[in-house]
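DM between two lab members

TW: hey, do you still have the Winged helix DNA-binding domain-containing protein entry open?
JB: yeah, one sec
JB: this one, 396 aa:
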Amino acid sequence: MLRIGVEERRTRLGRRHRLLSSCHAADPVEAAAAMVALHATDPATVHLSVAARVPGSDVLSTERALYDDRTLIRMLGMRRTVFVVPTPFAPIVQAACTDDIAVKQRKLLVKHLTESGVGPDADASGKWLRAVEESAATALTLRGSATAQELSADEPRLRTRLNMATGKAYAAQPYVTSRVLFQLSAEGRIVRGRPLGTWLSGQHHWSPAEDWLPGGLGDKPAAEEARVTLARAWLSTFGPGTAADLQWWSGWTAGQAKKALTAVEAVAVDLDGQGGYVLPGDEAPEVPVEPWVAFLPTLDPTPMGWKDRDWYLGEHKAKLFDTTGNIGPTIWADGRIVGGWGQPESGEVRFQLLEDVGRETTKLIEAEAARWTAWLSGVRVTPRFRAPLEKQLSQS
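TW: and the structure you got?
JB:
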């Protein structure tokens, strides 16, 4: 069995993730396609992930691709996470991941509605949910575009409260609004459009999918076919990786991941004693690359591409991840994480190295920190998920 060592994996990462200066992407769409998808749970991540891979890019160019040209689309995808993907790839993600999520989330929402007394049983709660969904979808069609608050005014039942964790210290009574819109989005009926505020805002206008794109998300392949296509894309960007890596990244079952790897005829390789896979014809070593550094944002797709992260993370997990597994802003050098960064109220980029990288690499990192300070131009990005080192560096 062919062995692919850590250094080879790090070389592949730099080139395929478009982090080398000689391999940067030409535009936001190419950057997203290179990574399969860009994380969008934290809205700033999309813009910063693009900026790390597209020289000269700015917020406006990414917004133009998302909201004017609509060559990128924000959608629910792998692991019930919001991503930005190239629009032609959206039907693949929908069929491979999102359709299953929609089924599971509907059952869960009906359960919560029943427990909250909306209906005496699951059947009644399900009918209530369908009625509210259709009413909200009709209101959105009439408006063309609307916020959650506007839709709640049109359909008052969206202000129904759920009783969550009753009797617990963390009990809550949220409106059902976000859950209903989430469901309609997961089923591909509505699309998140422009944010209500700046590019840092997590609230968006909604539009019917057919209004946002001609024909909506387009024709979907069968689920199994879509999973094969998604597995091939993942291996192209993140390979070599293990079956467990693919299963974690995609949110599939172990059986679905294994079946998809078999269908793409993935080639088994040895990852220093651990079984991994690459695409057929992708066994040859990469050409050595020039030294490189990169500042990546919270939840960038590069560090979130594998379940097993030891080969690029080292012993830095405690400082760079929050308690629920979300990675904060990171500094990379030649395919491994060497530090983290943050912004105090003044807006400049501060960083801390977690290992000795040598004088020349340190100079590259200092220059990159200055570049990011200039790019952000006083805008302070506070991640939704705060890692310990980021919080430390962000203190004024």
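TW: got it. The radius of gyration is 22 Å. The mean pLDDT is 96.
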